[in-house]
Amino acid sequence: MTRRPARPAPGPAIRVRPARELRRRRRPRAHSCWDHLIAAPLWPLHGANLGTLLRTCDAVGACMAVPRFSWVPEALERGNTLRRPACVHWTNDPLGWLARQRDTGARVVGVELADEAVRLADLPAARGRTVAVLGHERHGIPDEALGLLDAAVEIPMVGNGSSLNVAVAGSLVLYKLAGLL
């Protein structure tokens, strides 16, 4: 009969931090949208993506700017699993809203496949008020909005698809802009 080698002693147990400890380690004050990130899915197609992106906004301390489509409030309410009010900016005029953001000094970064786009890994963290513009799931950012961008960021993909859905793309970019990746 062959003897098995003794198993090494298990390493230190993984300690899961309790919710109280996590809350103590997070930002000590509520965020202010005057010096923060704003996710701007201004041409949304699916409500489920807005709800998911709203949760990411909370995680990184960002606000969200959305168009006043009739179905958007319900989508945000359904997606807000935190059951606290979220910082949401409403607009009837996405192009005018973006232009006003630039006029007030915000950096406007679009998630788009463009020749001048920076790869996500090379995107620096936001140093001031930054708007992350997310386009339509099928058509991207409209041509008339591209001129309002200060920069474009591309999320590299090796699969067959040409883009990710708005919630996933927005989440990746927000984490990177927040300096959390």
TrEMBL record:
This is tRNA (Guanosine-2'-O-)-methyltransferase. GO terms for molecular function: tRNA (guanine(18)-2'-O)-methyltransferase activity. Its EC number is 2.1.1.34. Residues 48-175 form the tRNA/rRNA methyltransferase SpoU type domain. Keywords: Methyltransferase, Transferase. GO terms for biological process: methylation. PANTHER family: RRNA METHYLTRANSFERASE 3, RRNA METHYLTRANSFERASE 3, MITOCHONDRIAL. It comes from Actinomadura algeriensis.
